């Protein structure tokens, strides 16, 4: 799942920054798409390095590919200092930094240093939320139990469902809702046996009833030496109470009262993360409770899937003016191609001044074809409407004049 998701979503890094840069992308990206989105953004396409795919892990593949390293070194010739901008810290990233330093370059990491790498692992575990909630008065988590085997799991689920009606079972790590199960009293726990993210220990918590018309609040937090340096508000769309589908990013992503609560939690958790040695972007996921309280569900100690939206807002200087809606798994009909069916739709939008982009088209040739799309507008509702129009228009059966 991580190899799949990482490869599919890596192209979102195209939108992180407009600074002079070299991009490291897995082989197989669409070069025409790459040139088109940069032209639409008014940017020159940067050079790209794509190592031979061996492990499915991008940086590890680069470290094993001397030819790709030579290409990267050529692109960096003449540079004195480089900033290593990463999705999140891994041991391989620190090896890459060491290799660049071996070439005589000064390397700045835009995330946590190797000395404090442990803090990213700790924060990324759902247990960290439970710990921090005991220390920070403004951070709430739902009632729960930590279990270490099947006997404890069945007993804990029985107690929590009897007490609250529904419980949510969480693995300490998961992706896009995988590793999470919502269960009613007497419900099946078969998913726990089938989902590879479910490994003990597990957290069994009260399922918080969601407030209507809010979505699941989230926030991207930039942690620096002096604490929280930036906060980007988000609202996640989920299905079945936990499966991630899309995210709205920006000032209109949340109602004002919830935005205030999320901002407060972001500063509390960001400061706590700084005190643990963490630096760089992290994401905090929450639930807006029907009881009008904000509950923290997890911390992702890395860039989130919405980071490209925040990057675009900063590039445009539109943090207070625009909201973006990012959809990661937009289904398209079998036979869809970028050149014939996707590009014409976006060219008409760009000609009309609409800020909407296909953020990856790598999945068009898969058995269940998908693309990722992002759109910007003054309100979240308008941005979502643009995405809905794109979803309708991108089809081999759609006539050229059908796109709106």
Automatic annotation (TrEMBL):
Key word Ligase present: no
Chloroplast keyword on record: no
Gene Ontology terms for molecular function: ATP binding; metal ion binding
Listed Gene3D superfamilies: ATP-grasp fold, B domain
Superkingdom in the source lineage: Bacteria
Transmembrane segments annotated in the record for this chain: none
Residue ranges occupied by any ATP-grasp domain in the UniProt entry: 131-329
Keywords on record: ATP-binding, Nucleotide-binding
InterPro entries, sorted: ATP-grasp (IPR011761)
Protein name per UniProt: ATP-grasp domain-containing protein
Source organism of this protein record: Amycolatopsis coloradensis
